[in-house]
Amino acid sequence: MTTYDKKPRVLLVEDSASNAMVYRSYLEVDYSVVTVGTGADALDKLGSQKFDLVLTDVRLPDMTGLDILDQIQQSDDPAPVVVMTAHGSVDVVVDSMQRGASDFLSKPFEKARLLVTLENILKKEELKDIVIEYEKSFQRNAFHEMVGASLPMQNVYRIIESASKSKATVFITGESGTGKELCAAALHAESLRRDKPFIPLNCAAIPKDLLESEIFGHVKGAFTGATGSREGAAARASGGTLFLDEIGEMPMDLQSKLLRFIQSGTFQPVGANREVKVDVRFICATNRDPLEEVRAGRFREDLYYRLHVIPLEMPPLRQRGTDSLLIGERMLKQYADEENKGFRGFSEEVKRIFLDYGWPGNVRELGNVVRNIVVLNDGDMVRPDMLPDAIREGGRAAVRVTDRALAELGSGTEAPQATLNGAPEHKRSASGEIRPLWIEEKEIIERAIEVCGGNVPRAAAFLEISASTIYRKKQQWEEQ
Q1: Are 271 and 151 found together in one domain?
Q2: Which of 85-99, 222-236, 377-391, 416-430 has the lowest mean pLDDT?
Q3: Number of neighbours of residue 30 by Cβ within 10 angstroms
Q4: How much is the CA Rg of the chain, to the nearest whole Å?
Q5: What one-character DSSP code corresponds to residue 283?
């Protein structure tokens, strides 16, 4: 029958006792069937029990099968619904499918037709569950020290896992504050070198005349002030990983020495007359466009191609959906514990401001803002008046634009003449004011997504529904 370990549970809603008996006889070999005769009883069963499928007549004594369908569709995990009707007009069929029915059956129907219909639906649901579980296995809210559940960050996690076991050089790009060093540390932690040293070196934080010594080390007397020999980052990273952050700041003459080191695995400490051989995995990062630096003559082309084996771009926070809230909440807990404060979370208004603010300083700026809030305020929830002025005003400006757009949608004063897929607008009723609810809902959701620049989680936050609800409805619209 199916690949289910147990018989699938079916709720049969049929007010005709004779029909219910016939349908039950069709199903009871392969299914566990619960039969009710009214809509109220059906909703009561659905509220207390879990069913794999609902089979309902359209005409019932107290309500319609479509009313039951609507109630099921509002649940977080709606069961598939098959609508039965002896009044199989095109309008009824279309209406039921638009409301989310998985299929319909026109009475009278044969046993084979019923079984094939249910079998196909359950197979589809089973495949959907497999896909969801597969996606969940890759959906992570955090990875090592990085925090983020957005799709761009899931992609980063997968690249790290794929590249970590190799010795190939990884070139990380991204704006300042996006977490490039955390990414490098995760690459090392996932690698076969995890038990060896991870040595980070910020090329922008070291004076240029000392950078060579910091990387390769020096011997006593190599230059003024070199009162003793010193091991450089390259030697300390032997067997492990050397992370060169902001490599675009490296002087051209030192770039040539680094290229030779990468090619040969050997280097010469400053002032030494012997070479040292080490086994190092290289990871580098920059907040600049490396190709633009090559074109401008500030970065050696041959070094670029030697380093740019596996490119990995860290996305800016503004492109990461609700990650700003996820990261902010984790930081809030950490800083509140450190400062012995009682903050537990952000108010809804603060969440909206966070989602709308552009975060030009990315995660680093977010951390500074949260730290500022915790240190300068007290309370259990973060309120808008606790935010720095730049954050509060920047976020509120975007919220006002969004609220105005959504208010126009709700007022119906500027109803669009066509849906986004190009189909003509559904005809209005004789009053000229009322259209089907699903059409109004579709236009509101689509306009909210448009206002939010295609960001579905942000649109869901404004509409006060879950993002999964929007995705489910979009799938239903596409299948119509």
Answers
A1: yes
A2: 416-430
A3: 16
A4: 31
A5: E
Query: 181-217, pLDDT tens digit by residue?
Result: 999 999 999 999 999 999 999 999 999 889 999 999 9
Indicate if 229 and 277 belong to the same structural domain. yes
Q: Distance between CA 479 and CA 421 in Å, rounded?
A: 12
Tell me how far CA of residue 76 lies from CA of 54, 195, 217, 445, in angstroms. Answer: 16, 45, 61, 18
151 and 296 in a single domain? The answer is yes
User: Left (φ > 0), alpha (ψ -120 to 50) or beta: where does 221 sit?
Assistant: left
Q: Which residues contact 216 (CB under 8 A, 6 or more apart)?
A: 232, 234, 235, 257, 261, 267, 268, 269, 270
Q: Which residues contact 350 (CB under 8 A, 6 or more apart)?
A: 382, 383, 384, 386, 387
Report yes or no: 230 and 271 within 8 Å, Cβ to Cβ.
no
CATH number at residue 103: 3.40.50.2300
Report the DSSP pairing between strands 266-267 and 276-277.
antiparallel
3-state DSSP assignment of residue 82: strand
* Cβ atoms of 313 and 290 closer than 8 Å: no
* Position 304 in a domain: yes
Distance between CA 193 and CA 309 in Å, rounded? Answer: 19
Same domain flag for 384 and 282: no
Task: With beta carbons less than 8 A apart as the criterion, state whether 362 and 287 touch.
Answer: no
- Residue showing tokens 């995705």: 471
End-to-end Cα spacing for the chain: 29
- Which of 378, 412, 446 terminates a domain? The answer is 412
Pairing of strands 310-313, 345-346: unpaired
In this prediction the pTM is 0.58
Range of the domain at 119: 9-137
Q: Rounded to the nearest 10 degrees, what angle do helices 456-463 and 389-411 cross at? A: 70
Task: Give the CA distances from residue 301 to residues 11, 243, 294, in Å, rounded to whole numbers and listed in that order.
Answer: 68, 20, 6
Q: SS3 for 34?
A: strand
pLDDT digits (tens, 9 = 90+) for 280-300: 999 999 999 999 999 999 999
Under a CB-based contact definition with an 8 Å cutoff, are residues 146 and 183 in contact? yes
Report residue 192 as tokens. 């076969």
Backbone CA torsion sign across 16, 17, 20, 26:
negative
Taking the C-alpha atoms of residue 122 and residue 9, their distance in angstroms, rounded to an integer, is 11
